Amino acid sequence: MGLHPREDGRYRAMRNAVEGHENFFFFWFFQAQALLLSLLSLPFLVANFDSRIGLCFSDILGFLVWLIAVSGESLADHQLAAFKALDANRGKVCSIGLWNYSRHPNYFFEWLVWVAFFLYAAPAPWGWTMILAPGIMLFFLLRVTGIPYTEEQSLRSRGEAYRTYQRTTNAFIPWIPKKQG
After folding, report:
1. Which of 53, 86, 99, 155 has the fewest Cβ atoms nearer than 10 Å?
2. Domain positions in the chain
3. How confident is the model at residue 1 (pLDDT cuts 50, 70, 90)?
């Protein structure tokens, strides 16, 4: 059945919201995702117009940011999975490891991946315009598909414990937690 035996809650909520029109809705939903992916892939296209030979500072910086991003996202996902695997944590808020510093470290590091792609494309002609990719990703994570839905779902399932977590832990950028009270 794969790694995720249940349907993602976001898709379940969308399916419920458009009951009776699922095929029409999801057809256009996935078409919009395809268009978005086309826009997000532009840094790779633009990078191919860079005629320089060899690496530059932006390439090295992009690789380092990418390495930090992939490592951070993997660590956050691993920490969350380990937390959820313990029956004693059922219904509790994960605030261990990176989750102590950000309510959504996985989203933060996912965004950093796109920053790395921008850095890689930046030296190419018109490469500076590829700031569009991390900008689009940031918009979607902060305002559309990422944090808003996850926060809403967490408030429904964890209630006051999650409200406390919201008051003490930064939503996106990992940072020192605020003191309770």
Report:
1. 53
2. 52-181
3. very low
